[in-house]
């Protein structure tokens, strides 16, 4: 199995080369996928072969074996994200400078792997005043208690509520480091809410986690109104997740010629990227040239995961193949800031990041008057006035507060809340029908959500997704349709409150102004 050299080098933990009292230690971390180490063939430091009788290895379970024992037993489990420590014993300390390390070993299912890296040696330091950790089990109750006590001693305070949780900390590996407890955010429910989606069909109760008074009540009021009109039609119209590397060349012609080569080799690049995942699908690559730089914006479909890590790994593998097969590249960075991860941007509004969702409804005039005490003409006129304010301010959302509902649902369901940066973009449109009713539509061009992976499988977060029937495989489109519909309910509720001057009085009754 071909693995690009740039990806192979990532197996080495940079900064791990350490002088011990009687030898040297460095470590490898599996960043590929679950594997088995069958045999370590050779280790060299500064091109000198290290005698096999001086080498020992420590496995993920803490067991330490000589190289002979290690190779004799063979088939050692090397799970994804686990670490393998290599000890070179009974040798002189290495000078404190840069050293070249070469290692070759047999690994299933990859075959024989060989790579070389450079690292600067450091001395093992005496324990300092740092956060307690356990290399073998950093999510056990004992080490969690030690961290809590460390935090209390450092701050002079006391952990009470933070340390009370119902989840198994061991399920959090890959979600958080230095775990000490949980943040408890109140959850309210809004609904029932009728949604007419392609994936979300029927009535839903929506969990919303927030500490902002009136928010849940406002969304509930919007849902009540939209139910009277038969519900909200919600549609996912596009799906894409990006990673955007940049390649540096001698001049602009070099960058231009490189992009032409990329186009000709698209199928091989797609094959290398998709080999890293059973889910990721590379749909297309955007090309942007500036100065002597070639920006490539890789666009993937990522199934039920939000997919940033997935596409990062897939793009890295593809770029590794590119670097091994194209001459003339002077420099390379996996991310150029052109994917605009965790940032609002115009390109995501235009090109989609995550799910592009449109929710729409036609609201009867009598229903608006009955529930909201406002006429459709007031809402429509208010929207046009607010459009001028949107233009003047340069905001990325022509609506009122769709990020409010999106954030509350993100917290409740274990989404990456920083993705609200992209997901905050919204395009609100309204028009009056010939009957005097109000057509209202909201497009969220970069809604980044997941129904599987990341934080969606943790305790309360998984539970909230399950209560909507949105946890697990083949459920992300359903969840995206619900989020889009909920955001629209919040827009009509707040727009009506402002247009009818109920906004301040509502906060006086339910919210923070009490």
TrEMBL record:
State its Enzyme Commission number(s): 1.1.1.34
Question: Could you name the domain of life of the organism this protein comes from?
Answer: Bacteria
Q: Does the keyword Oxidoreductase apply?
A: yes
Q: Which residues form the Hydroxymethylglutaryl-CoA reductase-like domain?
A: 7-122
Does Transit peptide appear among the keywords?
A: no
User: Which EC class does it fall in?
Assistant: oxidoreductase
Q: Which UniProt keywords apply?
A: NADP, Oxidoreductase
InterPro entries annotated for this entry?
Answer: HMG-CoA, HMG_CoA_Rdtase, HMG_CoA_Rdtase_cat_sf, HMG_CoA_Rdtase_eu_arc, HMG_CoA_Rdtase_NAD(P)-bd_sf, HMG_CoA_Rdtase_sub-bd_dom_sf
Biological process (GO), any one: coenzyme A metabolic process
A GO term, aspect molecular function: hydroxymethylglutaryl-CoA reductase (NADPH) activity
Q: Which family does it belong to?
A: Belongs to the HMG-CoA reductase family.
- Protein name from the UniProt record: hydroxymethylglutaryl-CoA reductase (NADPH)
- Native source species: Bowmanella dokdonensis
């Amino acid at each position: 199995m071909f693995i690009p050299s740039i990806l192979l080098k990532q197996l080495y933990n940079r900064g791990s080369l350490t002088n011990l009292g009687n030898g040297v230690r460095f470590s490898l971390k599996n960043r590929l996928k679950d594997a088995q180490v069958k045999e370590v063939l050779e280790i060299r430091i500064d091109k000198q072969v290290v005698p096999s009788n001086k080498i020992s290895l420590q496995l993920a379970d803490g067991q330490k074996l000589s190289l002979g024992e290690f190779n004799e037993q063979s088939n050692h489990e090397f799970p994804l994200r686990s670490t393998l420590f290599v000890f070179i014993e009974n040798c002189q300390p290495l000078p404190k400078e840069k050293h070249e390390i070469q290692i070759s070993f047999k690994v299933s299912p990859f075959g024989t792997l060989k790579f070389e890296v450079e690292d600067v040696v450091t001395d093992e330091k005496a324990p300092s005043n740092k956060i307690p950790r356990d290399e073998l089990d950093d999510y056990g109750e004992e080490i969690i208690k030690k961290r809590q006590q460390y935090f209390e001693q450092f701050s002079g305070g006391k952990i009470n509520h933070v340390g009370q949780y119902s989840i198994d900390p061991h399920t959090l590996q890959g979600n958080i480091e230095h775990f000490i407890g949980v943040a408890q955010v109140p959850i309210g429910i809004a609904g029932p809410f009728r949604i007419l989606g392609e994936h979300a069909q029927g009535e839903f109760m929506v969990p919303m986690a927030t500490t902002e008074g009136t928010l849940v009540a406002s969304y509930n009021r919007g849902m009540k109104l939209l139910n009277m009109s038969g519900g909200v039609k919600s549609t996912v119209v596009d799906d894409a997740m990006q990673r955007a590397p940049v390649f540096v060349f001698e001049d602009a012609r070099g960058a231009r010629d490189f992009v032409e080569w990329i186009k000709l080799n698209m199928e091989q690049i797609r094959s290398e990227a998709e080999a890293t995942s059973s889910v990721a699908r590379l749909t297309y690559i955007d090309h942007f040239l500036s100065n002597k730089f070639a920006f490539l914006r890789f666009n993937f479909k990522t199934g039920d995961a939000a997919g940033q890590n997935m596409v990062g790994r897939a793009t890295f593998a593809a770029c590794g193949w590119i670097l091994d097969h194209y001459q003339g590249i002077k420099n390379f960075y996996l991310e150029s800031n052109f994917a605009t991860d965790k940032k609002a941007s115009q390109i995501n509004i235009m090109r989609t990041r995550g799910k592009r969702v449109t929710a729409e409804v036609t609201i009867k005039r009598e229903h608006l008057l009955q529930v909201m005490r406002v006429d459709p003409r007031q809402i429509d006129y208010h929207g046009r006035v607010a459009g001028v304010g949107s233009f003047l301010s340069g905001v990325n959302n022509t609506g009122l507060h769709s990020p409010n509902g999106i954030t509350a649902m993100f917290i409740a369901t274990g989404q990456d809340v920083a993705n609200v940066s992209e997901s905050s973009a919204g395009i609100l449109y309204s028009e009056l029908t010939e009957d005097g009713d109000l057509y209202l539509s909201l497009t969220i061009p970069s809604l980044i959500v997941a129904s599987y992976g990341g934080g969606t499988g943790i305790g309360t977060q998984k539970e909230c997704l399950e209560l909507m029937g949105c946890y697990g495989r083949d459920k992300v489109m359903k969840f995206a349709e619900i989020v889009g519909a909920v955001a629209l309910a919040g827009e009509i509720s707040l727009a009506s409150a402002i247009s009818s001057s109920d906004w301040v009085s509502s906060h006086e009754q339910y919210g923070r102004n009490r």
